[in-house]
Amino acid sequence: MPSELVTLIPPGTGGVRDYAEIMSRHIPSRLLAPTEQTPLADYGGGDIVLNFSGYGYHPRGIPSWMVERLAQLRAGGSRIGIFFHELFATEPPWRSAFWLGPTQRRIAADLGNLATYWLTNCDSAAQWLRTNCTPAPHRVLPVYSNVGEPSPQPGPRADKVVIFGGSAIRSNTYRRLGPDFWRWILEQGLSVHDIGPPIETSDYDRLRESGRIRAHGSLPADQVSEYLAQARFGLLCYPPHLVAKSGVFAAYCAHGVCTVLLADIYQPHDGLQPNVHYAAGLDALENGTADPATLGAAALAWYQPHCVQAHAQAFRALMAESA
């Protein structure tokens, strides 16, 4: 009998856990949310898949204990697969993460050196791992949608804009929206639908109370999918060189939504072209540079090679390569 596969996930909720739970339906495994105190015996004696994001396993993003534990498991004969959802934080000097960066980098490199095989979600992360770790079989696959992949694709779109995600990511998006955005909403006759946990700020409360946004709160995945299937636009504030690791962006793409990406600099990354696969800011829509339906279709085509099934196939292939 083959040994049990154990998938490690961060304690609590979040996109990394959602990713792992979906993948476990395609590649059966036992999910374990370990802490530093979790006994070695709880990991079992079989192979391990770690879903790594440093802050998921330590409040300051430095889970040195994870390196020690995986080294023990590897020495005991376990094969270690790692999906690097995050490597390390990149922050300015006035943020604590800047000073923790060297330790976070060391932990990421140590984990990469322990990996029998690895996957990650964007080219920049893959290049760092290839440079700083011993060679191992690997794949680079942007993340998939955690809220479904409709088939067939939705039909005609309603005049709706969706702002979806966790509190922090939606808060960043709202901070980028100035008077021009709200004027454009009125001119186009659009309604803004906010999906996610409440944001604890007075600005958000004012938006809700004024009726500028329709706040739906956190919804089950199938209901999020229904809203995305209706929406003409999805808004997201995220750096283009990292957006391939955004589950929100993946959800927009999987539903053929035109993503309006809010960023400081727009450049091609991970096969994504500004104003080809997403609208590079509101200006691209206001000046007619981009057609929403065309962008949504291009985003869906970009998404297909790394859908859920593609990730499952990649895991199976890497497991076979490292057997």
Give your account of this protein's structure.
This protein has 323 residues and is of the alpha/beta class. Helix content is 41%, strand content 15%. The protein contains 13 helices and 12 strands. It has helices spanning 15-26, 54-57, 64-75, 96-114, 123-132, 167-175, 179-188, 202-210, 221-230, 247-254, 283-286, 292-303, 308-321, and strands at residues 6-8, 30-32, 48-52, 80-84, 117-120, 138-140, 160-164, 191-195, 213-217, 233-237, 258-262, 279-280. The strands form 2 sheets. Strands 2-1-3-4-5-6 form a 6-stranded parallel β-sheet, with helices on both faces. Strands 9-8-7-10-11-12 form a 6-stranded parallel β-sheet. Helix 10 (247-254) links the parallel strand 10 and strand 11. Helix 3 (64-75) runs parallel beside helix 4 and helix 10 (247-254) packs across helix 12. The longest helix is centred in the N-terminal third of the chain and has 19 residues, at 96-114.
